[in-house]
Specification:
The protein is α+β, with helices and mostly antiparallel strands. The protein is built from 13 helices and seven strands. The chain has two domains: 34-189, Roll (Nuclear Transport Factor 2, Chain: A); 207-274, no CATH class. Helix content is 47%, strand content 22%.
Amino acid sequence: MQRGRLLAIGLLILTISASLSPALRAQEAKAQGENTPEAVFQKATASMQAGDLAGFAGAMDPAALKQFQKAMLDLAEHAKSKGKEKQVLEMFSNAKKIDDLKALTPDKFLASFYEGMFSRNPAGKQMLSQSKNTILGHVDDPVDRDRTYVVYRADMKGREENTGRPNVANLRKVDGRWMMLLGGDLEGLATLVKQGMEGPLLEFPKPETVKIEPLGHFLEKDETARVVYRITTPIRDSKFARYTVFTLKKTEDGWKEVHAGDIPRTEALIREAMGLEVKKEPAPNSPPQRKPALPKARAKAKARGGR
């Protein structure tokens, strides 16, 4: 009797589990589909375009938000010491003094920054709302497995497609969830503004001081290689890092090396494209190189002004 009752209970549990499994699997599949780097990026940018700054900030890595707030508050204090506090406060909405910014939570701090930016540049806000983001692919960080870079192109609605420049969005996995990072431009904003307060930069850094780090690539339609790389530029006593994309067609020189993951060759191609080639100094005590002697016939012709 007892065994029969237990068997009946077991069958009931199996029946309920079987009936719930498809729904649970569908729910899990949906959750996993929403937790891809591409899906998180699309949701965050859609919030930004719709003016939902709270939703946009909610997609951000909390640690990145705190880091941004600290950097900007440090900048505000530095500006205050130079009598330029207003220059920083004007970047935010409804900020009359630094204490107003300190009172904000990190997510509201970011929202206030974007509100201030859009109020100063309404045309930029309109362009953002009319842009269409097309994801081209993504590259995983070669060292940090919890970090990836989504490459996308922003095209203006109503204009010819495929004309926008590829951009990079940084994401990090936090407790199993992909979350947006602020990106090199925003992360380095405080550094750029602070250095600008010290006076204009009179010259561009020497090519050898600019660091180029290819992070990986993917192929687009087997005809185009998109290489994500980090460029770090020294600015006086600070550094400014940003992430961008190098594009190479299959018909161009260097395709095989880039496709094979040849990092030194890829870096050289990027430097060449940016005009950052590092000149190799001649070896010490090496004799000066002489031009090869012309054959006598060509030498006489050249002396007469011929070819």
